[in-house]
Amino acid sequence: MSEPHDLILAARHVTKKYPASNGRILVANNDVSLNFYRGRTLGVVGESGCGKSTFMRMVVSLEAPTEGEILYRGQDITKLRGEALRQHRQKIQMVFQDPSAAFSPKMKIMDIVCEPLLNFKRIKKGEKEETARRLLEMVELPGDFARRYPHNMSGGQRQRVGIARALALEPEIIVCDEATSALDVSVQKTVVELLVRLQREKNISYGFICHDMALVQSLSHQVAVMYLGNIMEILPGGQVSHGCLHPYTQAMVGAVFDLHMDFSHPIRSIDSEAPSPLDAPAGCPFQSRCDRCMEICKQERPPLREIAPEHQVACHLYQ
Amino acid sequence: MLNIRDIAITYGGNSIPTVEGVSLEMNQGEIVSIVGESGSGKTTVIRAVLGCLPGGGRVIRGQIQFEGTDLGSLSRDAWRSLRGSSISMIFQDSGAMINPIRKIGPQYVEYIRTHQRISKKGAWDKGVEMLERMRLPNGDNIMRSYPFQLSGGMRQRVGIAMAMTFQPKLLLADEPTSALDVTTQAQIVRQMMELREQYNTSIIVVTHNLGVAAYMADKILVMKQGRVVDAGSREKILNNPSSDYTRKLLDSVPVMGGDRFV
Lengths: 319, 262
Fold this sequence. Notes:
The complex is a heterodimer of chains A (319) and B (262). By secondary structure, chain A is an alpha/beta fold. Chain A is built from 9 helices and 12 strands. Chain A has an 8-stranded mixed beta sheet with strand order 6-7-8-3-9-10-12-11, with helices on both faces. In chain A, strand 4 (67-72) and strand 5 (75-76) form a beta hairpin. In chain B, helix 5 packs across helix 7 (152-164). Chain B has one domain (2-260): Rossmann fold. With 262 residues, chain B is α/β, with parallel strands linked by helices.
C-alpha cells in the first residue's frame, strides 16, 4: 500500500466551469479529488464528454481550475505564474493521442525529443544527437531514427517517440491521454509493456485516460470512473471486473466485448445516452439512466464514501 | 448468396496486388467478421463487393458473385439499382457520409426517391418510420436536424436506418462502432444483431475490435497484409487458430479481469 510520502500530486475539490451560450454554465469537472502516487498509475474512464481530459489538462497546467487546488508536493500549482510555472512544467509531461499530429512534420526526431531539454538548458546543442540516441534506445527504437522525420515511421514508432519526448525531462508524472487508442492491438500491447517497464525502472506516476475498460483495468493501480464531470467510483484496477459497485461502472463493465464472454447471452448496456453536461440533473447525475434509481437519488447528490480500503463509491445504495 | 472467389485487387495500376487470394462464401442470414490491423486490406474487400473501390482500384482476378450474378459484369445502371437497395453499407462515421450543410430529411427523401417512385411526402414518412424503427425517438425531429446536432450514436443509427430502408439482403459495415463509447457500441451491436433476426439480413462487419467481431460473427476472416491468414467459424478461430498471427492478435487483446501488467 502507498505511504503518504509517496503522494506526488493531489487534486483537491477541483471544479472547472466553462461559460456556454445563453448565460448557461457547463460544469466540466465537479468537486474532483484524486491523488497521484509515486510509481503508480491512475486510470480515468468515462464516456466522451465526462470531463476526464479536462481534469488531466488541469493536472498538466494547460487549464486552470475554477475552484479548488492542485497540490504538487504540498504546493498549489494553480497559483504558479511566469517563470515559476515554466520551471514546474518539467515535472509533469504529457503523451498525446494522435502521434502524427503531436509533432511538427518539419522537425527531425532528434530535434523533437531534445527540444524540451534545450528549452531548459539541460544539454548543449552539440550533445543533441547523442542524447536523442540514448532516449530512443530507452523506448526500444534504433538510435538511427534520430535523423528521420516523423512521417518516415509507423504509428507505433511515432508513439514511442512521443513517450521519449515526455521522458526527456525525467518527469515525476506522465499524463497519457488516449495514448494507445490510435494503435493496432498488437502494437498497443508493446507500447503498454514499454510504459509499464519504464514505470518500474523510473518510478514514474502515470495518469492514464482511456475509453477501453479492459485496457485501463489491466494497467492501472487505481481506476477513477467519471460521469458528467463527477467521480462516481474509485477502486483498485484489479477489482474493476468483479468488484465494482456503482451501477454506472457495472453498466460500463457489462458493455465490454470480451473474447472470453458467453456469446449466447445478449450484451447488456444502458439504452439511453448520457445527457448533455449543460443540463445535468440535480441529485445523482446518473439518475436518468440508472435502473436502481430511488426517490432520494432525485433530490440529493450522493457523496463519495469509502466502503473498503482504496474503494470509494458515490451512490445512495451504499450510504 | 455471396460468393467471393479468389479475388485480387490493385490500386492505380500497381503491378503488385494490394489484396490477393481472398475467398468467402456466405449464406442468407449469416454474419461474417473481417478482422485485421490497419492496412491489412479488410476495407478494400468490402468496398470491392459494393463496387466502389476508391482511387482507381480494380479487381484484376477472381470473381464476386451476388445471388448468382457476376458483379464484375454489371453495367453502371445495374449497379445503381443494386447499390443502396440489395446491398448497402454503413460507415465508421455516418455523419461524414451525410452532407453537413443540409438537413437529414431532404437527403433521406432524395435517397429514397432515387430507388423508388414515391411522392416526397411518402418518402418523408417512410424515412420517419425507419428512424423510429431504429429506436430514434421523434423521427420527424431528426429529419429536421443537421448532422452536427446529433450525437455520434444517433448519427450511426441514422446511417443504419438509411442503409436498411430497402431491406437489403446484404449489409456491409465498415468499423460501425469504432468511433463510439462502449455503452453506445453495445447498443449499436445489439441493434445490428436484431436486423438479422427481423429481416434475415446477411452482414459483413469489418472491425479491428476482436471482441465485437467475435460476438457478432458466425464466421471470422483474419487478414494480414492483403492476405487471408485464417478463416473459419468463430469457435475455430478463437479456440483453435491455425496461424501464429491470429494467436498473437488474440493474445494482444486486453481482457477484463485477465492478465494484468502491473
